[in-house]
């Protein structure tokens, strides 16, 4: 029963990927044949599935039940251009976030000692 539900959800998602692909083609006034459109949509869906699996594994490895932005960036490590864009996007979001809403991490004594023992040598 659960397998049938998973299959129906997958089919619905694949159909939505196909509709999105058609919409992008129309919006950009591109001439692409039907079979090629279906292939592009299927590839995009398979990529999204693999990305979701990688994201789940990275968050589990970090001991979390919820994925964070670092997990997303790690999961796209195969595509350096995309990883760079995501890092930039993440930095922009952090810069726009008010200081009072940012979470503060409790640093351990070891980290405190490590940061105080660092000596900066200026470039000459």
From TrEMBL:
Region described as Disordered: spans on this chain: 95-124
Protein name as it appears in the record: Centromere protein S-like
Similarity section: Belongs to the TAF9 family. CENP-S/MHF1 subfamily.
Keywords: DNA damage, DNA repair, DNA-binding
GO cellular component: FANCM-MHF complex
GO terms, molecular function: chromatin binding; DNA binding; protein heterodimerization activity
Lineage: Eukaryota, Viridiplantae, Streptophyta, Embryophyta, Tracheophyta
Signal peptide: none
Protein's organism: Pyrus ussuriensis x Pyrus communis
